[in-house]
Design a protein that fits this description.
Blueprint lengths: L1 E6 L6 H15 L3 E8 L7 H8 L4 E5 L6 H13 L4 E5 L1 H6 L5 H4 L3 E5 L10 H12 L5 E4 L10 H4 L4 E3 L6 H8 L5 H8 L4 E5 L8 H14 L4 E5 L5 H10 L6 E5 L4 H6 L3 E4 L8 H9 L3 E3 L5 H4 L7 E2 L6 H12 L4 H15 L2 H17 L1
Parallel strand pairs: 1-2, 1-4, 2-3, 4-5, 5-6, 6-7, 8-9, 8-11, 9-10, 11-12, 12-13
Helix pairs in contact: 1-17, 10-11, 10-15, 13-16
Length: 375
């Protein structure tokens, strides 16, 4: 089966790492997947494309005008038909809308989508409109995979109970993650870690829904408890300027590092004392599964599937429903001082091995594909 994975990636985060793990596993099982990575004409190479080539995975960089480019999406569809692809698999609202809105009779290739999560954008903004169109478009697809059970409440009521909806948790190659965790990381980050203790880590897009602004505020509390703590926030996004300005206002430039992308997140997690995920909304983030795999203590918001994945506290620390920056700082200090961290990391490692491997994820997607093709 030839599968064309469609994505317009903004970095190398959870959705991208899940896709790379899925494609690698599909190749092992005899499928013929290809990643089509869309991007603006001014972009030479995206982080996803660099990482896919490093891993030896088939990837095509497709450059097109940003936005809902109907003309170029039609070219992609014609290219997929000409090259004999049996199935389209979309990862993100762009291709959900551009190709999912076609009736199957016109598209000629069945299509599924993985919904990684919604950001709950403000009404009448561009992202809000895209999410609205996305919820409509996925109703027309032959199959929809949600990365967590909690995401069903994000869908229209009729769709959330539809047989086309399948919950397929994200998975990863745990052996590869452990191998990466022992590899070197970027020298400036390594130097920062050597000069600070304890070290907190946040990973994700620098966007409002990730909650890194309140993590920076909470870090003031941590600085009042420890002599020389460090905070690293890995990622890029539209909140970088605001975060940098606030860090400067708080005079914490020497204690907070915003290094941009990091290609060895497991290695960085292994060297950190606590991974903090203060998100306002989430599905099932790969960052969480990576942290569980390398045995680092984890503190998360009570959103998405994160609490259930961590056994509601058995495998990590869960923040309360309402938590301001001051309280977040106190919870970080408690987690860093936690006497039960060892038992929690042992529990989370066993959990990720049993339930969130790339093999388990690939098997579930193969069953979804088969049900669509048979239908």
């Amino acid at each position: 089966m030839k599968v064309l994975h469609l994505i317009d990636s903004g970095g190398l985060y959870g959705a991208e790492r899940m896709l790379l793990a899925l494609v690698a596993e599909q190749i092992k099982k005899g499928l013929e997947p290809t990643i089509l990575s869309a991007g603006a004409p001014t972009i030479k190479e995206k982080p996803l494309e660099i990482e896919a080539r490093r891993l030896g995975l088939p990837v095509i960089g497709w450059r097109m005008r940003p936005g809902l480019n109907v003309t170029e999406s039609r070219k992609i569809l014609n290219w997929a038909i000409t090259n004999g692809y049996d199935l389209l698999h979309s990862h993100g609202f762009k291709f959900n809308v551009l190709l999912g809105s076609y009736p199957k009779s016109l598209r000629r290739i069945p299509m599924v989508a993985t919904v990684h999560g919604y950001v709950h954008a403000k009404r009448f903004t561009k992202i809000w409109l895209y999410e609205l169109l996305d919820r409509f478009s996925i109703c027309l697809l032959q199959g929809v995979a949600l990365v967590g059970e909690a995401m069903k409440k994000e869908l229209p009521p009729l769709l959330s109970t539809s047989k086309k909806i399948k919950v397929i948790p994200n998975g990863l190659d745990i052996n590869l993650i452990k191998l990466q965790a022992n590899q070197p990381i970027e020298r400036p980050i390594e130097k920062f870690i050597a000069n600070h203790s304890p070290v907190l880590l946040g990973v994700g897009r620098l966007s409002h829904e990730k909650g890194f602004d309140r993590l920076v505020e909470a870090f003031q509390v941590v600085c009042g408890k420890f002599e020389n703590p460090g905070l690293i926030i890995v990622g890029e996004g539209d909140q970088r300027v605001n975060l940098e300005a606030r860090i400067s206002d708080l005079k914490m430039q020497d204690k907070v590092l915003l290094p941009g992308y990091c290609f060895n997140v497991p290695g960085l997690q292994r060297r950190s004392d606590l991974v903090v995920m203060p998100s306002l909304t989430e599905g099932l983030p790969i960052t969480l599964l990576e942290a569980m795999s390398v045995g680092v203590p984890i503190l998360v918001s009570p959103v998405g599937d994160m609490p259930s994945v961590l056994g509601y506290g058995a495998g990590g620390y869960i923040l309360p429903e309402t938590c301001n920056a001051q309280n977040l700082g106190a919870h970080i200090i408690d987690a860093l001082s936690g006497l039960q961290s060892g038992s929690k990391t042992d529990w989370s490692l066993k959990k990720v091995i049993s339930d969130y491997s790339s093999e388990t994820m690939e098997r579930a997607y193969r069953e979804l594909y088969k049900s669509i093709m048979d239908y």
